[in-house]
Amino acid sequence: MEHPHLLRHHFASVAFANGFSAGEVAQMLGHRDGGALALQVYGHVIPTQLKSKVLSLRMAA
To answer: Exposed (0-12), middle (13-18) or buried (19+): which is 22, by Cβ within 10 Å?
Structure first.
């Protein structure tokens, strides 16, 4: 593994992708700020998920 934090980053990204809230992800990572740091560091946009959400909006219209 290139860097041990990559596993942590992957875990947080997958948790967000599966609907965990920022507070929940923060708690699992041991953060005590209610999720602000988790959102800032790990809450990036995943292109395939964005595309899927946009397509679901089009279907609803």
So the answer is: buried
Contacts of 21 (CB under 8 A, 6+ apart): 35
- 6-42 pLDDT, tens digit per residue, is 888 889 989 988 889 999 999 999 999 999 999 888 8
Which stretches of the chain are assigned E, i.e. beta strand? none
* Tokens coding 30: 């041991």
Q: Dig out the tokens for 17 from the structure.
A: 């992708």
Quote the Cα angle for 29-30-32, to 5°. 120
